[in-house]
Amino acid sequence: MAEAAANSRPQHRRAPLPASLIWGGVLLTVILALAIAGPSLSPYDLDALQLDMRLMPPSAVHWLGTDEFGRDVLSRVLNGAQSSLLMGFGATAVSLLFGVPLGLVAGYYRGWADEAIMRAVDVMISLPPIILGLLILSVTSPSLWKTVLAVGFVYIPIITRLTRGITLEVASEEYIQAARARVEGGWYILFHEILPNAWPPIIVESALRVTFAMLLAAALSFLGLGVQPPASDWGLMIAEARPFINSAPWIACSAGAALCVTVIAINLVGDGLREALDPRLARRR
Amino acid sequence: MAGYVLKRLLSIALTMAVMSVLIFWITQVMPGNVAYMILGDFASPQDVATLEAKLGLNDPAYVQYLRWATGLLQGDLGRSLVMDRPIAPVLWDAVGKSAILAGISIGLVALLGISLGVYAGVRHGRISDHIVSVATYINIAIPEFLWAIVIVMLFAGYLNWFPATGYSDLSSGFASWARHLILPVFTLVTGLIAHISRLTRSSMIDTMQTQYVRAARARGLPEKLVIRRHALPNALLPTITILAIDVGIMMGGIVVVETIFSYPGLGRLLMFAIQNMDVPLLQACMMVITFVYAAANLIADLLYAFLNPKVRYGRSSSE
Amino acid sequence: MTDHVLKVEDLSVSFPQSGGRARILHNVDFALERGTVLGIVGESGSGKSTAALAVLGLLDNGGSIDSGRVVIDGEDLYAKSAEERRQLRGGKISIVFQDPFTTLNPAIRVGRQIAEPLVMHRGMTEAEARAETLRLLKEVGIPDPERMAASYPHQLSGGMKQRALIASALACDPDVLILDEPTTALDVTIEAQILDLLDSLRITRSLSMLFISHNLGVVSRICDEICVLYAGRVVEYGKSASILTEPRHPYTKGLLASLPKMSRERHRLQPIPGRLPDVRKPLSGCVFAPRCHFAEPRCQTTPPAITPIGEDVAAACWRASELARTPWRIESSETIPRRVDAGDGKPIVVARDVERTFEAGGAMDGISFSLDGWVPRVSFGRKVVRAVDKVSLTIHEGEIVGLVGESGSGKTTLGRCLIDLISPTSGEVAIDGAQLLNASRSEKRDLLKRAQIIFQNPDSSLNPRKSIGETLERPLELVGLGREERQRRVAELLDLVRLDASYAERYPHQMSGGEKQRVGIARALSTNPRFIVCDEAVSALDVSVQASILNLLLDLREQFKLAYLFITHDLSVVSYIADRICVMRNGTIVEVGSTEAIIDRPQHPYTKALLAAVPKVPELRANLDR
């Protein structure tokens, strides 16, 4: 049992990579490649209006059909990858940039710093994410980078809380006491002793956060507060295709499928990372 | 316990106060010139002056805030700019309609989600377990707005079983009322059921592995009793908190769902306020949402405390 | 014909593990005679808890019985259906687990949990069960059964909870009562009370008990027979008195030689080298051979069967008979004199009136509300706990001061105050004559070069993301040593703690608990300190490993004239290692004296109670001792 396992000679060989990590990784690599190569791959000019070719169903000429302005859906879906991925990863980067240091400070120093940070977090989560996003974006003219910032901001409290929780756990370990016993500075303890041990769960959470951010950004674009026409963005495309959902379902379905596949790919990577980096958490799922 | 209740009330009041400052600051102070923002960049100076007078925009920001906040405390939500009438009746009507949608949904989520989670947790590692996992993946991957559109396309478009949009009052017949609610409710609950059942499942699995469950088995209790008496009460305690989180997620979902189904509730009113730059209406909607979410969290906290002997009875002196 | 209430025959159990199954129990045989106590003894990894669960028919996590029988009162447990097995549990056979804090369901009143078997197996009504519960609680020595029954677990202390669990296990008058380390989670005085209770119960109820423990003192106190498990195999089995005074199997010999005893004279401990074999690897020959210094060629090839040696003992060793009178010895066992010259040594650490208070909870907890009728009352100010209450203490060069106390006595807080890991609320601490507490950061770093700490938990005291080399180099880097010098010094340090230089490349997860603890010691030594706080430094280790660490600490003291503050809850260990002992309780030191004086002539009633509570192992037969 556990006690026997703990005492047996340690194994040096590494466990094989989880299948979900491999599949997710391959899928995500393909998507990233398409996103980067998208503009040169797309068969048609993005904004080329062909008013005589409106709402054409998929055919040999337009593999995924055309939209209400006669624009090629495949080209727009390919190009939409960039904005979706940018929003997902960009927003997550923003929330990590602020959330991780805040969580480290709150969890390690405790006291008034902890109190102040956590009360601020309480206020920020007193509005549900989408609503907070709407509030932030409601009064400014919409743009892609503002959406990235707003979505990133919305998820700061979640990263802060997570980091704080892990920090509390790690800070109670005796090697942190040992570092303090040799009078290490706060910076060294936070970033050289605690952070390396806090990374695995944070990375796993960030992978899932990317998908949430991507979906939140898409929803905001869908509601008209994110990316603006005529940009090609999956959320926006679905919004624009909504009136034609029964006559031309291919537009919304293509963009929707692209979004779903991307989200699933990132989720697989996240789950795989969880399994590989943090077996304790993986078991709990 | 009484002390705990008072403390939670105070902390919620504090959060609401800070949030009201934040909402006011973001919507009215931060944009710089609100009048131009509302009227557009090419508004005539007279129009701007009229609006500034109407909203009291020439006063210092804190005076504007205090005027607004006192109004709120007295139940005065202000006047809508676009509709040019008091906000309160419009808002309460919308809140009522959203409450129907949300109430039915959260009830279904609690009932179906928790039972599914418990079931999957007890039969850990079997087929039901995999169903929950797959459902979770689908839930994570398909955003609400896409799900709603697909549902409209299938059930309203092709099958034509239910109306795609609108709301029908209960006074015009139960059947019609229900038919208008089915698709929005269905859209809202699918994701949340997956969410809560996954968390209930893992909570149940954790509880089934505790030492006190093992001890109950060692006393010779039949497995059903072990689950019902020893595992369930402890496993379900955390789901109270999760339900409160789900209320929050649902409020976000309501904005999307009401927009798509043209359901005349709070979410649609909020989008109306944003699209038309109706700042007083936007502020009022935001405050109501903050309040409802805070209330949901408060109820969850109190219920949790009431059901958890550690909070309810505290520590006795026999230590 | 003896009347065996429980018989375990040829029992093998395995658990799933990455890449196959790991066998945890190998053909285990033992039998419990009615009305007696059989002790199952072993260190961690011996499989003793698995044996208990197998006897209950409660193996979980995929564990399965590969062979053998468990016979309770003539009935084969595993020949029965799962339903019949369930009905035996809590009725004919019941168990008390190790940790009373997690064994009671936090959401159910204690009385109701105790009553469960009564309703289940004896068919009582709720009211009858309630009355019987109160009677049981009284029987296990609970002064106020009514209040106890109405309490939730979190409202009770550990000792009270364990009494309640014993009451529950006794509820249906079981044929066999299994006790799985029932006192390990408790303080020594509470442990003594529980053992007293079990002692009296076995007489009043003529109980048959299976007592599982790693603690030889506890076992010798309560058991009639002993079954020694090593790596899932029975290595020695027989009468308790005989095994403990005249062990036949080398492992048992080693175990007893590793044990620090409370005595005036101090002999060097004789640890068992090496570690447990990997359960995943197939083994030919005797399982103990790799660690046994009596091993012969045949021990490596053919496993010995357990065979009777003399009347009341059987052992699984080829050489058991010829070695019967040979003691376990791998190092010289000269006596190590204690320092009694503490007075003329130079003081290294001087603490004066050190006080440390803690405020309970976060900032918001400082405000408390109450309802007076319907009028809310607000009060400010947090509950203050005084962990260390005006303690003064001087430690001299080369002196080992033991600090003993039970949980909550403030011993750990005091130890950390001395090196400013926890800042005292008031008082003074001087190291080598210089004030520590108000020193600037650079001065503090300078002072703390001379005062270091060794921690309790080898799994937690090393950063898992750093190699041993990195861990040991960092303090040297802070002192300003160059790269080459650091590496040379790391090799030196590893050598000091008897580890191979190649360990610098390893990571903590690639090492055993004892090895990690050695690295912890090396880290503490890296800056050439004069004084080291050993905070429960050997408490998490198995006896055989503990002995080698204690030896190492004593050697290092000799070599470097180090002073230790040795904090522990274990009186045997402290009386072995310390020159002087401080007894701590409720934040104050209640008695200080030379080890000899404390052991032989304790003054304070609390010290007397502590000493009386320690379960002792009988002395080995004279001819074995030297």
Automatic annotation (TrEMBL), chain A:
UniProt keyword terms in alphabetical order: Cell membrane, Membrane, Transmembrane, Transmembrane helix, Transport
Transmembrane regions: 21-41, 85-109, 116-137, 143-160, 207-227, 247-270
Subcellular location: Cell membrane
Annotated ranges, domain ABC transmembrane type-1: 81-270
One Pfam family here: OppC_N
Gene3D superfamilies per record: MetI-like
Primary location class: membrane
Membrane-topology descriptor: Multi-pass membrane protein
PANTHER family: OLIGOPEPTIDE TRANSPORT SYSTEM PERMEASE PROTEIN APPC, PEPTIDE ABC TRANSPORTER PERMEASE PROTEIN
UniProt-recorded name of the protein: Peptide/nickel transport system permease protein
From TrEMBL, chain B:
Stated family: Belongs to the binding-protein-dependent transport system permease family.
Full protein name: Peptide/nickel transport system permease protein
Keywords annotated in UniProt: Cell membrane, Membrane, Transmembrane, Transmembrane helix, Transport
Superkingdom, natural source: Bacteria
Transmembrane segments: 9-27, 99-122, 134-157, 177-196, 235-261, 281-307
Originating organism: Bosea robiniae
Bilayer topology annotation: Multi-pass membrane protein
Protein's cellular compartments: Cell membrane
Keyword Membrane: yes
CDD domains according to UniProt: TM_PBP2
Residues annotated as domain ABC transmembrane type-1: 95-304
Automatic annotation (TrEMBL), chain C:
Pfam family, one: ABC_tran
Domain ABC transporter: 6-256, 373-611
UniProt GO MF annotations: ATP binding
Membrane topology: Peripheral membrane protein
Keywords attached to this entry: ATP-binding, Cell membrane, Membrane, Nucleotide-binding, Transport
Record SMART domains: AAA
InterPro entries from the UniProt entry: AAA+_ATPase, ABC_Ni/Peptide_Import, ABC_transporter-like_ATP-bd, ABC_transporter-like_CS, Oligopep_ABC_C, P-loop_NTPase
CDD domains hit by this protein: ABC_NikE_OppD_transporters
Main location (coarse class): membrane
Ligase among keywords: no
Subcellular location: Cell inner membrane
Protein family according to the UniProt entry: Belongs to the ABC transporter superfamily.
Protein name (Swiss-Prot/TrEMBL): Peptide/nickel transport system ATP-binding protein
